[in-house]
Amino acid sequence: LRKYWNQRFDYFSRFDEGIQIDNEGWYSVTPEAIAEHTARRISQLYNSRSQDEDFGRICVVDAFCGVGGNAIKFAEWCEHVIAIDVDPGRLQMAKNNAAVYGVADRIEFILGDFYELAPSLKADVVFLSPPWGGPEYQSTKVFDLDALPVKTGQQWVDRARLISDNVVCFLPRNCRPEDLAALAPALPCDIEMNRINGFLKAVSVYFGQLA
Ligand code: MGP
Ligand code: SAH
């Protein structure tokens, strides 16, 4: 826990203003600079189509919102956010943390299973940061996307594509690029390596119009 505590201001720059995190939250939360980058990139989705007019008018589903690291940044950069989590405690913490950042009113929080909810949702973009099985994700040289603990990477992406082909996945840094691209082989994709202070933290893969 000490390792994560030492990074608390990388996770939330407003950590001292009342941020709440539980055990799973500590090792899963997306560092703020990475979350901000992803949100900015998504907010520019329709920029090329009509200059400033549509800038940021994007609805994003954060399928696994955890304690809200990504959802808060989506709310700062996009018009509407649907934030889902199966864990009531973490969903409540995400609400609290969004209030610390003054964006709680821009996020629709839903307690539930993304897999079940997906067919009933409409949005421009779906962001997937599923559980990776804890810090042990590093115990193998190559992370197998079929070994995600709840559903496979393929199952999550196929489910997300019921909503939109504009899908972003936030995944372990030891994933193989070819496995990431194979999650939606017919779609264009970009793979980003997300670093903080030079240290590789994770990879993000952008599909569809986001690539
Ligand atoms: P890490 O490797 O556990 O930490 O996770 P860190 O600080 O890089 O330590 P190091 O000593 O291994 O270098 C790196 C980042 O991956 C975290 O900050 C989270 O953003 C993300 N992350 C880690 N896990 C275990 C998960 C997870 O289960 N789900 C999601 N969505 N993100 C995770
Ligand atoms: N991006 C988040 C961290 C996500 S951690 C942040 O920055 O804070 C992954 C989350 O997925 C956990 O909170 C877990 O409760 C949630 N989860 C697991 N299975 C789920 C499911 N089927 N539907 C929705 N959420 C789920």
From TrEMBL:
Top-level lineage group: Eukaryota
UniProt keyword annotations, A-Z: Methyltransferase, Transferase
Keyword field contains Methyltransferase: yes
Keyword NAD: no
Catalytic activity of the protein: a 5'-end (N(7)-methyl 5'-triphosphoguanosine)-ribonucleoside in snoRNA + S-adenosyl-L-methionine = a 5'-end (N(2),N(7)-dimethyl 5'-triphosphoguanosine)-ribonucleoside in snoRNA + S-adenosyl-L-homocysteine + H(+); a 5'-end (N(2),N(7)-dimethyl 5'-triphosphoguanosine)-ribonucleoside in snoRNA + S-adenosyl-L-methionine = a 5'-end (N(2),N(2),N(7)-trimethyl 5'-triphosphoguanosine)-ribonucleoside in snoRNA + S-adenosyl-L-homocysteine + H(+); a 5'-end (N(7)-methyl 5'-triphosphoguanosine)-ribonucleoside in snRNA + S-adenosyl-L-methionine = a 5'-end (N(2),N(7)-dimethyl 5'-triphosphoguanosine)-ribonucleoside in snRNA + S-adenosyl-L-homocysteine + H(+); a 5'-end (N(2),N(7)-dimethyl 5'-triphosphoguanosine)-ribonucleoside in snRNA + S-adenosyl-L-methionine = a 5'-end (N(2),N(2),N(7)-trimethyl 5'-triphosphoguanosine)-ribonucleoside in snRNA + S-adenosyl-L-homocysteine + H(+)
GO MF terms held by the record: RNA cap trimethylguanosine synthase activity
SUPFAM superfamilies attached to this UniProt entry: S-adenosyl-L-methionine-dependent methyltransferases
GO CC terms of this entry: nucleus
Similarity-based family: Belongs to the methyltransferase superfamily. Trimethylguanosine synthase family.
PANTHER family recorded: S-ADENOSYLMETHIONINE-DEPENDENT METHYLTRANSFERASE RELATED, TRIMETHYLGUANOSINE SYNTHASE
Protein name according to UniProt: Trimethylguanosine synthase
